[in-house]
């Protein structure tokens, strides 16, 4: 190594050492997953608390004419109100999704996957919180929905996070990007 290379820190050929300040890839991606999940969860929980306190038992609030309104609705079923008798099953599914995401997080090196899984995790936690803590009882609670577009089902921010995370996962899969950061061409 020449004196100039030593002074400016140019590595010699074959020097594969990482800079000491570099963080492990996996740690950054897990943090991203947790930040996105926490943000989605807090926004969902806060919006539901606001809806229950200010909008429940009140007339709907028109946001964009007839196109969009806020209307407090308790949904014991799944998407679009289907499966009201299966609330306990939806609770188990949400818990299973959370477990799968936590297990997958150990191998997570892809930032887009971290964002997608964070959205799924935050949304699943948001709706699971409702199912556990809201009436009529533990594991049978009704989810608070309030976003009511014209000619569509009423939903909440957790539902939006789940749908956006699912769409992102489909797009990442079509692009061949795996959660571990590898790209495959099929």
Question: Summarize this, please?
Answer:
The chain has 186 residues and is mainly α. It contains five helices and three strands, in the order ααββααβα.
Task: Provide structural commentary.
This protein is mainly alpha-helical. Helices cover 52% and strands 10% of the residues. The protein has 5 helices and 3 strands. The chain has helices at 3-8, 25-54, 87-104, 111-133, 157-175, and strands at residues 61-64, 68-75, 143-149. A 3-stranded antiparallel β-sheet has the order 1-2-3. Helix 3 runs antiparallel to helix 4 (111-133) and helix 4 packs antiparallel against helix 5 (157-175). The N and C termini lie far apart (44 Å).
Q: Roughly how many Å apart are the termini? A: 44 Å
Number of helices: 5
Strand order, biggest sheet?
Answer: 1-2-3
Q: In one word, what is the shape?
A: globular
In angstroms, what is the radius of gyration? 22 Å
Mean pLDDT: 84
Main sheet overview: 3 strands, antiparallel
SS elements, strand count: 3
Task: Catalogue the unreliable spans.
Answer: 4-15, 17-24
